[in-house]
């Protein structure tokens, strides 16, 4: 009997501070930066985002999401033998967020490491965990996406600072006789690193260069609509399914226009697309597990549903996964 991996439980966690578009616009106006609720909603679909306070980190958010996912799976921390955290805003240069979360949970002994593939990070982490489980190296994996992008936003750059928010999501992926994850695909094109990056580096105890997020939004937009459709079709073909088999598309929540455009090209109706970008903004690697958990807890996604996950992010990196929930 072949070995598969499937999602046993989901969890998420958001910081309490909610900042609506109007409040953000007011804050930016104090520094002479002009934006509006109307522009943000029309161009992105975002209405609000959560921002962590100064003392809350991505490990804090990730730990809460992980505990909720474990509860939902009915597992204890000591049952976990692999922790992967997807993040571009870790607490420390090292050790990894995954190791720090492992320490908090008291889940010692298993492997723990971070994956840095920016907004595609959760798909990367899920795919790696699936490989570990199917090969027999791990039995129960915690796959976490946790971000505090507010820390790397330049609040004088209106083209980026209105887009992102903080949050975390997690799934427990466990070994199973039945799939589970049906197909996954990961891709990258490092020649496009410059269109979405946070180029600062640490040297001699200080940040060299800028540690603010930089994005050429239009260039990323063009790439996104191209690669997301292609990678979605790749996983559907690999699993011998079609878009008609997809009950729910759970895309990276960056921009409602990209999400719905991709769905339309795939022939997936908008009502079948999980949409949380209005409430969360773009939470990078956390966005898919956050959207997934939100839909699961709302009773929208049910056991047996076929889900199509897809994301693109800095790198560029992109990927998709098709799974039976
Ligand atoms: O998560 C990783 C992947 N990231 C993405 O998928 C993001 C991809 N890109 C996007 O979602 C979109 O390109 C944005 C939402 C970032 C921008 O939307 P757009 O429709 O591509 O707008 P634009 O960059 O073409 O800007 C249109 C206008 C410009 O003014 P002019 O040149 O037409 O006078 C901008 O200066 O909107 C202006 N603008 C703003 N106006 C008010 C840019 N940002 C703002 C703002 N408020 N916050």
Counting DSSP H or I runs of 4 or more residues, the number of helices is 10
Largest sheet: 5 strands, mixed
Beta-strand proportion = 25-35%
| Total strand segments | 15
CATH topology value of the largest domain: Peroxisomal Thiolase, Chain A, domain 1
Helix content: 25-40%
Structural class assignment: alpha+beta
Q: Provide the CATH top-level class of the largest domain.
A: Alpha Beta
Shape: globular
Low-confidence stretches: none
Distance between the termini: 20 Å
State the order of secondary-structure elements, H for helix, E for strand: EEHHEHEHEHEHEEEEEEHEHHHEE
CATH architectural label of the largest domain:
3-Layer(aba) Sandwich
Strand order of the largest sheet: 1-7-6-4-5
Radius of gyration: 19 Å
Mean pLDDT: 97
Cofactors and ligands: oxa(dethia)-CoA
